[in-house]
Give the backbone structure.
Amino acid sequence: MPDCPDSDEFLLQATGQGDLAAFSRIVEHHQTWAWRVAYRFTGNEEDASDIVQEAFLRLLDASGRYRPTAKFRTYFHQIISRLCLDQAKRKQPLLLETVPDTPDPSPDTTNTMMRQETAIAVRAALDTLPPNQRMAIVLRYYENLGYEQIASAMETTTKAVERLLARGRERLRDVLGSKENFF
């Protein structure tokens, strides 16, 4: 077992030996970023919550077999990525139009509305990407993972990640317009 009792690897192995308090600590440590990845991929709170719940259930189920050959976070990114991609195969993304609230007369309202419109445009553009490209974009630009970490999470090569990101950025530029430089 890893030496540090606070490490995720140690906690997951302890979970595999029946320590549910250790699993609770893992959930506390990772639920926020896991939900963030799933939400950025799906664009839907309910789907993101379902994916994260399933990911933790799979993690709990695998805890007895877990061996720390890679960092825990990389291992968990693999589970989240797989579930997101599986969900994308089952369900086409829904493009939702949101109507902004009644404008507030304060001077900051214009900037807020512009940011909201930009976020809606980026969300819609992300939904046009094939699932693998979308996942690579989410992990790189929202979660700030390196190419090797993305490759490990998506179970592919670094070169494949480079291609996914390049094609994804190109598609986003086409959809958002070349004047927008988001990625």
